[in-house]
Specification:
AB_hydrolase_fold, alpha/beta, 36% helix, 208 residues, hydrolase activity, Alpha/beta hydrolase, hydrolase, Rossmann fold, binds D-malate, Dienelactn_hydro, 24% strand
């Protein structure tokens, strides 16, 4: 998969895995990663699917209607990629934190829905419910930040609540941060995610 890897300065900090929104690239969330954890190594990934020339992480049949077969295939493809990237760059596969926005948050959510221990934490900006009717893996204690919009037309509040409940029922420790700017990822939401990371993941990591 097309990607960028930047070695961090703090070997104890988790590696951040970045998943862009529709039409983005592996570089889009690099500034966000610096704000979240400046010493972390960063793996930015580009989605393997093109929709009218715009990179995505999986196909969709219409706005908000996912191609489930492709979603499952692409989720596994990414899961395998994370393993091979860990071998290639020498980062700790067990210490990955996902950072995704929109379509990227949806594929990160799908990884959490399908695989156990894929991430040690996740920051999901404006995610939807990736699949329904699944038994989720055991996510006990997994810290998850969800950034959501009270007026997000792509992911309405009831879907945010549904995702919160599904992850929580699997044991994840979910924090939801609400904004009023539709589907946008605002500076204040990014700051809230960074503060959450410092509290939930950076401190825990220093103690490790
Ligand atoms: C998706 O297709 O993943 C969501 O609708 C978000 C987006 O617009 O990319």
């Amino acid at each position: 998969m097309r990607h960028i890897f930047e070695q961090g300065t703090d070997p104890k900090a988790p590696t951040l895995v970045l998943f862009h929104g529709t039409g983005g690239t592996e570089r889009d969330l690099l500034p966000l990663a610096k704000r979240i954890s400046s010493g972390s190594s960063v793996l930015g990934v580009r989605g393997n699917v093109l929709e009218n020339g715009m990179p995505r992480f999986f196909r969709r049949l219409a706005e908000g209607v996912f191609d489930e077969e492709d979603l499952i295939f692409r989720t596994k493809e990414l899961y395998d990629f994370l393993g091979s990237a860990a071998d290639q760059y020498g980062f700790d596969r067990a210490k990955l934190v996902a950072v995704g926005y929109s379509n990227g948050a949806n594929i990160a959510g799908s990884l959490l829905f399908h695989y156990e221990n894929v991430f040690k934490g996740a920051i999901l900006h404006h995610p939807m419910v990736p699949r329904r009717g699944l038994t989720l893996p055991d996510l006990t204690g997994l810290p998850v930040f969800i950034g959501a919009g009270t007026n997000d037309p792509i992911c309405p509040p009831h879907e945010t609540e549904e995702l919160h409940k599904l992850l929580g029922a699997a044991g994840a420790s979910v924090s939801v941060h609400w904004e009023r700017f539709g589907h946008q990822l605002t500076a204040s939401e990014a700051e809230a995610a960074a503060a959450w990371f410092r509290e939930r993941l950076a401190v825990a990591d220093e103690r490790a």
